[in-house]
Amino acid sequence: GPAQAEMYAGLQELGVANGEDLKETLTNCTEPLKAIEQFQTENGVLLPSLQYALPFLDLHGTPRLEFHQSVFDELREKLLERVSAIALEGKVEERYKKLEDLLEKSFSLVKMPSIQPVVMCVMKHLPKVPEKKLKLVMADKDLYKACAVEVKRQIWQDNQALFGDEVSPLLKQYILEKENILFSNDISFLQNFFSPSPKTRRQGEVVQKLTQMIGKNVKLYDMVLQFLRTLFLRTRNVHYCTLRAELLMSLHDLEISEICTVDPCHKFTWCLDACIREKFVDNKRARELQGFLDGVKKGQEQVLGDLSMILCDPFAINTLALSTIRHLQDLVGQDTLPRESPDLLLLLRMLSLGQGAWDMIDSQVFKEPKMEAELITRFLPLLMSFVVDDHTFTVDQKLPSEEKGPIPYPSTIPEAFTKFLQENRIACEIGLYYILHITKQRNKNAFLRLLPALVETFSDLAFSDIFLHLLTGNLTLLGDEFALEEFCTSLFDGFFLTACSRKENVHRHVLRLLLHLHHKVAPAKLESLQKALEPTKQSGEAVKELYNQLSEKLELRKPSPAEVTETPSMELPLPTVPTPASR
């Protein structure tokens, strides 16, 4: 066929006979058998000793093709070994000259399946494959596919669109993997989104593939970063910031200095990575991080855009926020004000740099966001007063009560707290982490007191997936409270259900929680929740799927009809008594 013809066409260029030549010889000859013998002699393996060995193989019924094939495979292996050896020996210019000559000779046979590996091997070892050959490879889908990644890198670095096509499905896969973890049906306060260590995360498939595609090529690394920035701007999805940091640290693990030394964020990211591993920013590392921030020179402010993206990684925010809560508790014990703690101020500075990443990259105005004094002088002291309220209440509970009776837990929230959560991004982030903290401590009183402040928060942060993922995990620690009407009403009616209809993700998180805890919830409450959470026509597949799973579980919990004894029918009509379930 034409494909075959194309495949072997290269042989003629090299003065090697092919099938076409044999056809021609046979068409124009008088004695076909003699002609075949002559063709075999001229084109066979030219070794005098074979003259006698081949008839011997014929006697054993070994086809000539099989013999030639095995000789060919041997030779090809030897040639591949030789090519790899040439790539390492002698002077640089000489070895590449040899390989280029070999490529020139063999490239016309690149379509022959048997020869292709050799041609590919030669190209793989050439740091600069001639432009013309790259263009030919690029134009042919099968050849492009068969290329080693070393050759593809040379093609990609001048073809951003093609590289984008290769990277794009990986980035989609990465985001999907993150979302699957956040919405996973396994809910636990021990294992959550932030549990895997940075080292473990960098072993993920996507990070490894991207690292492999980039190699030591700074140009490709820059392209990937550009893709990540663009996608982050377009979608505001913070997982792209995580990938930005993971990719740099993956190259750091492999000690690829060609890239690490030119990325101005390298040392900052490396230091922050150690903090993320410990889930805490200690004093020594705080000094180091501060040194990097203070060291940004005039004219280099653009690096702030990159640093802010590194700090916007949810794993970084998580570490900074957890450290902030720990610092506040320490300050209560030391009787110190937030503004007197340089470590705390640094954490806030990094939080606001991270939270300001999108605005900075969008506006291209590279300067650190101004910290609002109110945050430090009013909001944080307010949080500290909540910590004090808890201490006081606990101590009061232990004191022998005189006539005065038990002291109730403070139930009102200062209006300022609610206002801060609505209007100030950093305050909101820290406030949410404080609520996660008290939930993890199983502090039901504090939780119910602050919960109403979550209904309206800065850009709906309390309904974001990461917060709800962590909250649902921590709520499993308060499992026994779900039997109480008051607790359920505050949590579901007062918080979750206020957003379910307008936010699909909240609907999913509530269903996840109930799938996990339905057996703890009071039956009457469960029934009304089942009605309230029924999917609408607009609901997505995920919500419908979760709702069906929940319904199946609840169906299994209902007593079977046999257990409900039938009242024998009497002639007299009885007044109908509502059964408790149908209330």
UniProtKB/TrEMBL annotation:
Lineage: Eukaryota, Metazoa, Chordata, Craniata, Vertebrata
Domain of life: Eukaryota
Gene that specifies this protein: Nelfb
Name of protein: NELFB factor
Region (Disordered) location: 557-583
GO terms, biological process: negative regulation of transcription elongation by RNA polymerase II
Pfam families: COBRA1
InterPro entries with a match to the protein in the record: COBRA1 (IPR010405)
GO cellular component: NELF complex
